[in-house]
Amino acid sequence: MPQIQVLNPEVLGTPLGQYSHMTRVKAAEFLFIAGQVGLKPGADKAPADFEAQCAQAFANIGAALASQGADFSNIVEFTTYLVHSQDIAKFMAYRGREFPKLFKGGTYPPNTLLVIDRLVREEFLIEVSAVAAL
Question: Which residue has the higher pLDDT, 63 or 73?
Fold first, then answer.
């Protein structure tokens, strides 16, 4: 019988809708992190800059992981949503620069990259969800 715990750590702020930031499942134990956007907890508006939103989305994932005693080495999958195909190169450059810092050893988890019409709020340019094994 799995044990399921829905979590909304204070470090992520209040969810923007009818969802939780994470669900912790104990079977072999996985952590499912809802899509994180480029919005700082407690902020009203995201920066207009893609790079800043990208960095904040991954900072939010890092905070979610840390709230459960995990880090980026626990990530087993990402799903990334971009609003503009023109941002793919910027996203790849960000990953090329930042992922070696986040993932020691050069092994990176799978990532599904989707370009979609829009996210929950017009200002958001990127959203990243993650699954971590604990």
Answer: 63
